[in-house]
Write a structure and sequence with these properties.
Layout: H1 3-16, H2 22-43, H3 49-53, H4 57-69, H5 74-95, H6 120-129, H7 142-159, H8 163-167, E1 183-186, E2 192-195, H9 199-212, H10 232-246, H11 254-267, H12 272-279, H13 284-287, H14 289-305
Antiparallel strand pairs: 1-2
Helix pairs in contact: 1-2, 2-5, 4-5, 6-7, 7-9, 7-11, 11-14
Length: 310
């Protein structure tokens, strides 16, 4: 079996057995063709099943290095490696090729994206006014929903919570005016942390609770229209509706409010370790991503304001 025949057999199997989409087949077929073309040059001859079975991890690393020199991004090289792994495993399982030590090959790690925060004015607008989006065209308890969304988004921005953390809160957890205790949050990995809550956020939650009505301490704090715990998708749609009304950017999402909380604290001089604790990050390196956001904002300000920047 030649390399081209092996590639065709793999793509046919993906289409028939895995029902891969046209786009997937096109991308994987291109990746495999690039790989086979490289091996022809690298090994000095046409590639067949025996040659593929004799590959070493160094051969795959050489291919990735060439693609990097050709301008492939880290994400593109990672995708190519995933496709090639699948191609070679197919040949091992279905055509008797010698198994390769693919586990020894680590793909390039894409850099985590820089968090996209809102400006302070945009974040404040969401925390203050986003609930009003529900007051337009809704007939099921619009006042309760408006107050709920205002309280929820104020909490996300004011305390830096993840949307799942906020929606998991029960009535017993509600931070109310006059209290000075921190909010107890259960984050990823069931890790518990204490987060201070601003008076404005406590006031928004108190206003929502007056609309929500009484309930047991173990009932959900944030309710949907049917009286069940609010679904994250509903909160995300509410913010999408508001950002269209308010002309906010597409990255104005519930999670962007958490990013904004951290970015604005850092810009105001807060200690990175303190922000790590407030966000519940297990590693400081995760929190350090926000220094890139702050640096980018500083550079943008410099370019806009400095007389020699143009």
């Amino acid at each position: 079996m030649t390399g081209d025949q092996a590639r065709s057999a793999w793509l046919d199997w993906l289409a028939r057995e895995r029902r891969a989409s046209v786009n997937t087949l096109e991308a994987y077929g291109h990746d495999a063709a690039e790989f086979l073309g490289f091996l022809t040059r690298h090994l000095g001859g046409e590639v067949d099943l025996a040659a593929l079975g004799a590959l070493r991890p160094a051969d795959l690393r050489a291919f990735l290095a060439e693609r990097a020199m050709q301008g492939d991004s880290t994400a593109t090289r990672a995708r190519r490696l995933a496709a090639i792994r699948g191609f070679l495993r197919f040949l091992t399982r279905h055509h008797g090729m010698t198994a390769l030590p693919l586990g020894a090959i680590r793909g390039p790690r894409p850099k985590p994206p820089i968090p996209r925060a809102l400006t302070p004015d945009q974040a404040r607008a969401v925390a203050r006014d986003a609930g009003e989006a529900y007051a337009l065209g809704h007939h099921e308890k619009p006042e309760m929903q408006a107050a709920r969304d205002t309280a929820l988004f104020a909490l996300l921005y004011g305390a830096g919570l993840r949307i799942a953390e906020a929606l998991s809160l029960n009535l017993r957890d509600a931070p109310l005016p006059g209290q000075d205790s921190a909010l107890r949050v259960i984050g990823k990995g069931s890790k518990e942390r204490l987060v201070p809550v601003l008076p404005a956020v406590r006031a928004a939650i108190a206003l929502y609770l007056r609309q929500r009505g009484p309930g047991g301490p173990d009932e959900a704090l944030f309710l949907g229209a049917r009286g069940k715990r609010l679904d994250a998708a509903v909160a995300q749609k509410a913010l999408r509706d508001f950002r269209r009304l308010a002309g906010l950017p597409e990255h104005a999402t519930p999670h962007a409010l958490r990013h904004s909380f951290a970015t604005h604290l850092l810009g105001a001089g807060a200690d990175l370790r303190a922000i790590q604790e407030l966000l519940g990050h297990a590693s400081l390196s995760t929190t350090q991503r926000y220094t890139a956001v702050d640096a980018a904002g500083l550079l943008a300000t410099w370019k806009k304001a400095h007389p020699r920047a143009g």
